[in-house]
Amino acid sequence: QVQLVESGGGLVQPGGSLRLSCAASKYTLDYYRIGWFRQAPGKEREGVSCISSSDGITHYADSVKGRFTISRDNAKNTVYLQMNSLKPEDTAIYYCVADASPFRTVQTMCHNQRADYWGQGTQVTVSS
User: What's the rounded Cα separation, in Å, for the pair 91 and 81?
Assistant: First the structure.
């Protein structure tokens, strides 16, 4: 069982930045696609960004393109989500997910918000 732990959430003013981190214990993330999904009250869950296991393929939701960047450091067994130019509508719980299904791609994983393992989530609040 892959255990994912998110960190880096918090309160930030509009226009500010945050970097979320996702670390795994016991298992290497090298063989997993990793993604960030978010859930805001009263809104549908959204696949924010996903990254492939080894060849650097990424996917972003239209709502965050140009503002968010996903990256991974396999040596540290950690995946990051750099969030810039944050808006109030980015307020949500952000979940780190890991997926190894042979039936999904980076794109379908993010588009359908499907993954094998989920973290507990970290709250991001964008407000003045």
Answer: 14
